[in-house]
């Protein structure tokens, strides 16, 4: 999926012929089948993810504080706060909400990769994401989301993200492009 505009929340979107549109007809995203997502970020235990989350840079300053996934100012969001580990990757604990669908997993795979690039002096937005989902997490389960920067060139960065279930089994993985912007 390639985002063309920020997707409106709590708004039904339509998908026709690979185009995602808002009710007013605005093109929000395009969807196509891409190369398979084969890369993963290694799992870490829940307690390591919890410790990393306590160091989440977004608590000190967040370019999008109301982000549904990682915004600390968003009380109804997913509450995924990816903190950096010593190797530059990110880890976040995530307690899955009572209702979970594929779109929730796609969202959960978004920001943990982005925070390998984002920082106090660098704002970025998701440009493109491809996801391979093995299975949905169970509501209420304690999962870990991992992110890793693969490469950066100019304003674009390629990241990988992996979602693990309570038993450490991989549930989903993503490859995403993040683009640096000026706020």
Can you describe this structure in just a few lines?
InterPro entries: HotDog_dom_sf (IPR029069). The protein is mainly beta and 183 residues long.
Provide key terms for this protein.
183 residues; mainly beta; Thiol Ester Dehydrase, Chain A; 2 domains; 6-stranded antiparallel sheet; 4-stranded antiparallel sheet; 3 helices; 10% helix; 35% strand; globular
Write the topology of this structure.
Elements: E1 2-3, E2 14-16, E3 19-21, E4 27-30, H1 46-53, E5 83-84, E6 90-95, H2 102-108, H3 111-114, E7 123-133, E8 142-153, E9 156-164, E10 170-181
Give the number of DSSP strands: 10
The count of helical stretches stands at: 3
Radius of gyration: 15 Å
Strand content: 25-35%
- Describe the strand arrangement of the main beta sheet, using strand numbers: 5-6-8-9-10-7
CATH-derived architecture of the largest domain = Roll
CATH superfamily of the largest domain: Hotdog Thioesterase
- The global form is globular
Main sheet specs: 6 strands, antiparallel
Summarize model confidence as the mean pLDDT: 91
What series of H and E elements makes up the topology?
A: EEEEHEEHHEEEE
Fold-level CATH name of the largest domain: Thiol Ester Dehydrase, Chain A
CATH class of the largest domain: Alpha Beta
Q: Note poorly predicted spans.
A: none
Number of domains: 2
* Structural class by sheet pairing and helices: mainly beta
